[in-house]
Design brief:
- By secondary structure, the protein is mainly α.
- It has two domains: about 1-60, Helix Hairpins (Orthogonal Bundle); about 60-95, no CATH class.
- It has three helices and two strands.
- The chain has helices at about 5-30, 40-50, 80-90, and strands spanning about 75, 80.
- A two-stranded antiparallel sheet has the order 1-2.
- Strand 1 (about 75) and strand 2 (about 80) form a beta hairpin.
- The longest helix has 29 residues, at about 5-30.
- The two termini are about 30 Å apart.
- One of its GO terms (cellular component) is cytoplasm.
Length: about 100
């Protein structure tokens, strides 16, 4: 089980990403638009830098929905390998069969 503070910190970051997504996209579009003047683009970059750092989607960490584990994360199931193995062994994941040879 991951530290609760780490999981909560990531949840807060996800909330900030969602909150600032529109504003960030607008400013990025202005900053990358080559038809505008350099001053306007630079101003957009400065405003982009003023946004909270944790509102950047890059700072989000994929975490297991069950344990909060940050590593060995399976995107398709949103779980870590350990959680997938445990639930798969119990037969709680449809279509997942434990292999044996």
């Amino acid at each position: 089980m991951a530290k609760k503070s780490s999981v909560e910190k990531n949840k807060h970051r996800a909330q900030l990403v969602k909150q600032y997504a529109g504003r960030r996209a607008r400013l990025k579009a202005i900053a990358n638009d080559e038809t505008l003047s350099m001053e306007e683009r630079f101003e957009a970059r400065l405003k982009l830098a003023e946004l909270p750092r944790n509102s950047a989607p890059v700072r989000l960490r994929n975490r297991c929905e069950i344990s909060g584990r940050p590593r060995a994360f399976t995107r398709k199931m949103k779980m870590s390998r350990i959680a997938v193995r445990e639930l798969g062994s119990q037969g709680l994941i449809p279509g997942l069969v434990k292999s044996s040879w």
